Amino acid sequence: MRFTERTLRVLKNGEKEAEKTTKIVYPVHLLLGMLLERTAVGAELYITYPKLRDILNERVK
Questions:
Q1: Cα separations (Å) of 57 from 4, 5, 21, 29, 61?
Q2: Rounded CA gap, 5 and 39, in Å?
Q3: Fewer CB within 10 Å, N or C, the chain?
Q4: What are the CA-CA distances from residue 16 to residues 9, 22, 47, 48 (Å)?
Q5: Is the pLDDT of residue 18 over 90?
Q6: For the chain, which residues make up each domain, given as ranges?
């Protein structure tokens, strides 16, 4: 399967987020990875819901 560079960055960011709490990458980790990318949908989410990252981080603890 082929992915764009942006998608690969989101997946890598999600993996890094998962490593902080668990070895398994859950959808919440991918969403956090999108927010870190801050482009396209990630940027829109970050602008619309600026506290979303904090809320998601609380959920994965």
A1: 26, 25, 10, 9, 7
A2: 12
A3: N
A4: 10, 10, 22, 24
A5: yes
A6: 5-59
